[in-house]
Amino acid sequence: MNATISSFAQANTLATHTALSAWAATSNFLIVIVLLGVLFLFARYAGRGPFVALLLAFYAAYALYSAFPYASLLPTAPPVTALFAHVGLYAGLVGVFYIILRRVVVSDFLSIGSFGLVALSFLGAAFLLALAYHVFPVATTYHFTSAVSTLFAPNSYFFWWFAAPAIGLFFLAR
């Protein structure tokens, strides 16, 4: 009887520890999972052509954002206002370039499978997180988990996360 109770206790401890470990791993990358889900749902709902236009708009908006001559006029304090101002400017530029590119990118000749959509959604989410770490003043308002920081914080990784959606489009869009 005691052996049965002991084995149930061990199984319960193992299940609880495994569930908590799985939740910890999931919560570490929750921001990536949420961004991936939003981009994937956008691709499924709007279509492949608009999704490709959105990924390309990320690049075009960054080019104009990095050369924006009035960045000194954006607020710098409090940190949340500064973050919203920079993200809002970038989002506005993404919106403008998305409208322009949506007229150019046609989905009649574009084929991306479901696996490709998931991969490109992940790469797009990683692109946005790399921008959050290296371009936007996110560090003053939000502290990412150490697992996410390990992947996105090093300056040497920024180029690869930045180039990843373009490389993914090259190989996955037909």
What's the gist of this structure?
This protein has 174 residues and is mostly helical. It is built from seven helices and no strands. The N and C termini lie far apart (64 Å).
Give the helix/strand layout.
Blueprint: H1 2-28, H2 30-46, H3 48-66, H4 79-104, H5 114-134, H6 146-152, H7 155-172
Helix pairs in contact: 2-3, 2-5, 3-4, 5-7
Give a verbal description of the structure.
The chain is an all-alpha fold and 174 residues long. The model has no long low-confidence stretch (mean pLDDT 83). The N and C termini lie far apart (64 Å). The chain has 7 helices and no strands. It is globular and about 45 Å long. Helices cover 78% and strands 0% of the residues. It has one domain (29-172).
How many extended strands? Answer: 0
- Name the structural class: mainly alpha
Span between termini: 64 Å
What is the average per-residue confidence, as pLDDT, rounded to a whole number? 83
Radius of gyration: 21 Å
- The helical percent reads over 70%
Query: Tally the helices: what do you get?
Result: 7
What's the assembly state of these chains? single chain
* Unreliable stretches: none
Shape: globular
Largest sheet: none
The run of helices and strands is HHHHHHH
Strand content: under 5%
> How many structural domains can be distinguished in the coordinates?
1
Overview features:
single chain; globular; mainly alpha; about 170 residues
